[in-house]
Write a structure and sequence with these properties.
Shape: elongated
Order of helices and strands: HHHHHHEEHHH
Structural class: mainly alpha
Mean pLDDT: 82
Oligomer: single chain
Distance between the termini: 110 Å
Radius of gyration: 33 Å
């Protein structure tokens, strides 16, 4: 091998080695190292506790949720009933004279302390309070039925507290009591043909534990 050939061979070897080193250096410095971050809100000490604010009967408590008013929270319950009753419209008055977002009759409104229908129709806050008050009153009036029948299957319906209260909202306390006394064979239908069994099934299983039974519940 001549001197020139030896030089050319050395150049090829060094070119090969330099190429390998360049690739390794690129791989090593081309990626940032993973930096682990700790979130204080996720780490709890032995003396710490997590506080849950849901379910709640106050709509404002759900303002920061990144989901619509769905699921089995109470807020989902009342909005689902409102949509079924009036499509959630506070100004709705149906052909039978039922008023507002939750479709109250004048008699029902009087029972919870609302006598000014014009003011009621203009006030979403009052309508929300009226819905809560009626649930509290009905929960008291139906406390025996709730305790006795919740969890049972009556007339093909799996009975829950929320379903009972929804049925009472549609047809009144007396019709719900009659339903249970007849073992589900007698059930009221409203003027549009909707049965309390439909409400008892559709709105069953929601969280209504935040509603406190109150015989004297009113919006005042």
């Amino acid at each position: 091998m001549t001197a020139l050939e030896e030089i050319q061979s050395m150049i090829k070897k060094w070119t090969y080695y330099i190429s390998i080193l360049s690739i390794v250096a690129f791989i090593c410095f081309g990626f940032k190292p993973f930096k682990k971050q700790n979130h204080d809100w996720f780490l709890l000490g032995e003396d710490d506790e997590i506080l849950y604010h849901f379910p709640s009967k106050n709509q404002a408590d759900y303002a920061n949720l990144n989901i619509p008013f769905t699921g089995k929270f109470f807020i989902g319950y009342k909005e689902a009933i409102a949509f079924r009753e009036s499509q959630g419209k506070y100004s709705k008055v149906n052909s039978f004279g039922m008023m507002g977002k939750y479709q109250f009759s004048p008699e029902t409104l009087r029972s919870i302390g609302v006598n000014n229908h014009a003011a009621f129709m203009k006030s979403p806050v009052l309508q929300e309070k009226a819905f809560i008050a009626l649930l509290a009153k009905n929960k008291w009036l139906l406390r025996d039925e709730i305790a006795k029948y919740s969890g049972m299957v009556i007339g093909g319906i799996h009975v829950t507290e929320s379903g009972i209260l929804a049925a009472a909202h549609l047809g009144g306390v007396t019709t719900v009591k009659r339903f249970f006394k007849s073992n589900g064979t007698r059930h009221f239908r409203d003027g549009y043909g909707t049965s309390i069994k439909t409400y008892m099934r559709k709105f069953g299983g929601y969280e209504t534990g935040a509603i406190v039974a109150d015989a004297d519940a009113s919006v005042q």
